[in-house]
TrEMBL record:
PROSITE patterns: FAD_FR, GLOBIN. Its cofactor is heme b. This is nitric oxide dioxygenase. It comes from Chromohalobacter beijerinckii. The keyword ATP-binding does not apply. It is an enzyme of class 1 (oxidoreductase). GO terms for molecular function: nitric oxide dioxygenase NAD(P)H activity. The gene is hmpA. It catalyses: 2 nitric oxide + NADH + 2 O2 = 2 nitrate + NAD(+) + H(+); 2 nitric oxide + NADPH + 2 O2 = 2 nitrate + NADP(+) + H(+).
Length: 393
């Protein structure tokens, strides 16, 4: 717990730190990778280059300072961080590395303004945050490891099926090499994976695109031309190859109740929506499934959705929106998803879930807000760094 003097220092210096926090974060990562190159494999190089990872760290620090005395809101923010950390296998021994490098980065950026008193206060604040995260992560790891089919650390899985879903998306079905049971996940969650590519270890996480079945997990990956891991999956991995999995995580899960659900996805953002739709339908809830894609060639899971529609004809409505349809395509709409289009399909008092490219999600969120949908009924999850933290801040 911070002393009253340290609390005063934090309050006095937060505006300056917040003003420079993105610059601090940009210094932090190169510094940490130089001092501790072994942790570099935990981070996506593309997110470093785009600035997404530094922005996420900056948002997390500012959000924690602002919300640390509001337990309910703070739990939501920390929950997003814990989800990301669990999918990467972050452990207590990683926190001193981050703390050391973060304080050096603060000192380098702010110079003489970082007195011994200021450094002590911000170090204490970091220790407080680290302690909370370590406690929450330990509980999550324990709960998962002790449930049927769970494990601690990583577990080796084998690709048992590889199925193309569209011109750019392929599904991979994964079964444990040890032949044991597979712990259930909550529909909408993602899973972390660890694999070696040309001698280098890389970590990624992908949405689980099928409902839990106790035997396998399914991930569905879009081939990105500049994506090291996605190209490796599409071009080099085959049935029989193995990789390591970490526990499922993620907060994009179905809110309890019997209200309608509207699932709004763009591109490969459709992957977590399939298990969410199935869960809602099996609970007897009305589902509007709106998917935006470039054209019919890249749209995935059409057959799977048609099977769901036939199984739940009175509950499921599927809506397609293509931005550049081919002559043979017949989408329900051509163009972009906006407030006017959403208004035509939005069920009264629904829960709304949005996943897709960041700009797509921001546009949908603004449109839903324009339609009067309360923030408590708008749910989303970013692929990659937790940019949503910046929204909280």
């Amino acid at each position: 717990m911070l002393t009253s003097a340290q609390e005063s220092v934090i309050a006095a210096t937060t505006p300056v730190v917040a003003e420079h926090i993105e610059a601090i974060a940009k210094r932090f990562y190169p510094l940490m990778f130089a001092r501790y190159p072994e942790v570099k494999t935990l981070f996506n190089a593309a997110h470093q280059q785009s600035g997404g990872q530094p922005r996420a760290l900056a948002g997390a620090v500012v959000a924690y300072v602002q919300l640390r005395h509001e337990p309910e809101r703070l739990d939501d923010v920390l929950g997003i961080i814990v989800d990301k950390h669990v999918s990467l296998g972050i452990r207590p021994e990683h926190y001193p590395i981050v703390g050391e490098c973060l304080m050096v980065a603060i000192g380098e950026e702010l110079g003489e303004a970082v007195t011994e008193e200021v450094a002590d206060a911000w170090s204490a604040l970091y220790e407080e945050l680290a302690g909370l995260l370590i406690e929450k992560e330990a509980r999550r790891y324990h709960d998962f490891a002790t449930q049927p089919g769970g494990w601690d650390g990583t577990r080796e899985f084998r690709i048992v099926a590889k199925h193309p879903e569209s011109a750019v998306i392929t599904s991979f079905e994964l079964a444990p090499v040890d032949g044991g049971a597979v712990a259930e996940h909550r529909p909408g969650q993602y899973i972390g994976l660890k694999l070696a590519i040309d001698g280098d270890t890389v970590h990624r996480h992908y949405s689980l695109s099928a409902a839990p079945n106790g035997r396998t997990y399914r991930i569905s990956i879009k081939r990105e031309e500049g994506g090291q891991v996605s190209r490796h999956f599409h071009d080099r991995l085959a049935v029989g190859d193995t990789l390591e999995l970490l526990p499922p995580a993620g907060h994009l899960t179905l809110a309890a109740g019997d209200t309608p659900v509207m699932l709004i996805s763009g591109g490969v953002g459709q992957t977590p929506m399939l298990p969410l739709a199935r869960q809602a339908l099996e609970e007897g809830r009305r589902v509007v499934y709106l998917h935006a894609a470039r054209d019919g060639a890249v749209r995935a899971f059409a057959d799977e959705l048609e099977e769901l529609r036939k199984a739940f004809p009175a509950l499921l409505q599927v809506v397609t929106v293509y931005s550049q349809p081919r002559p043979e395509d017949s989408p329900d709409h051509v163009g972009r998803v906006d407030a006017a289009l959403l208004a035509d399909y939005a069920p009264r008092d629904a829960q709304y879930y949005t996943v897709g490219p960041a700009d797509f999600m921001r546009c949908v969120d603004v449109a839903l807000e324009t339609l009067g949908v309360a923030a408590s009924r708008r749910h989303h999850e970013f692929f990659g760094p937790a940019e949503s933290l910046a929204r909280v801040a």
